[in-house]
Amino acid sequence: MNRVLPPSPNPARLVVLVSGGGSNLQAVLDACSSGLLPAEVVSVFSNRAEAYGLTRAKQAGVPAVFLPQDKKMARREYDSILAELVQACKPDWVLLLGWMRVLTTAFLDCFPGRVVNLHPALPGVFPGTHAIERAFEAFQKSEIIQTGIMFHFVVDEGVDCGPVLAQQIIPIHPDDRLEDLEARIHQAEHVMVVAVMKQLLHRSAVRF
Questions:
Q1: Which of 207, 208, 204 has its CA nearest to residue 37?
Q2: How far apart are CA 155 and CA 78, in angstroms?
Q3: What pLDDT, in 10s, does the model give residues 95-150?
Q4: Would you give the end-to-end CA distance of the chain in angstroms?
């Protein structure tokens, strides 16, 4: 029988990896600050110096780390360095929120079952980068009538194909501009990332 444990006095430790604006990071930061998520973001990492997600982290008083990848550095070497830095933060979960690199097992094997990714497309559709733009182009060609978002575990080096935690269809309207679709998707993402993380944190407080 499952037994729910008393709430931990220590919030769950989250490390977030971003490559861009970090609006989903902001949703998580706000949810942690308000108490909606029993967690704290203990560090934010980015592979891009210009990523506004780093600024969001600094504004929230969260350590922000820029880790560039030298062109001569192999992917696994970079991921090993990144994993060592993230491990030092002792995270309970690693969130990929707009992280634009495919992580190798050199990183993933250090955090089994604890890496999750938010992707602006439905499972099996438009994996990889520029998913929103590709969906909008497909809509304009009458190839699709809707798109979506998903939140999933990252278990290997496959692109946006891990076990799905949640998914949601996002409609595309005939008069949509690309920025309209982007705004609708991001709004849904902000809700999903907080809702799913809340569920995951609750599960971690259940003893089987």
A1: 204
A2: 18
A3: 999 999 999 999 999 999 999 999 999 999 999 999 999 999 999 999 999 999 99
A4: 7
Tokens describing residue 18: 């971003």
Judge contact between 52 and 31, C-beta under 8 A.
no
Q: Determine whether 173 is an active site residue.
A: no
What pLDDT is stored for residue 4 in this prediction? 36
- Which is nearest to 170 in space by CA: 194, 196, 190? 190
**Range(s) of the domain holding residue 52:** 12-207
CATH number of the domain to which 21 belongs: 3.40.50.170
Q: At what angle do helices 178-203 and 131-140 cross, to 10 degrees?
A: 130
Q: Is the pLDDT reported for residue 1 higher than 60?
A: no
How many CB atoms neighbour CB 60 within 10 A? Answer: 18
The answer to the question of residue 1 being in a domain is no
Q: Of the residues 119, 152, 190, 202, which is catalytic?
A: 119
Domain total for the chain?
Answer: 1
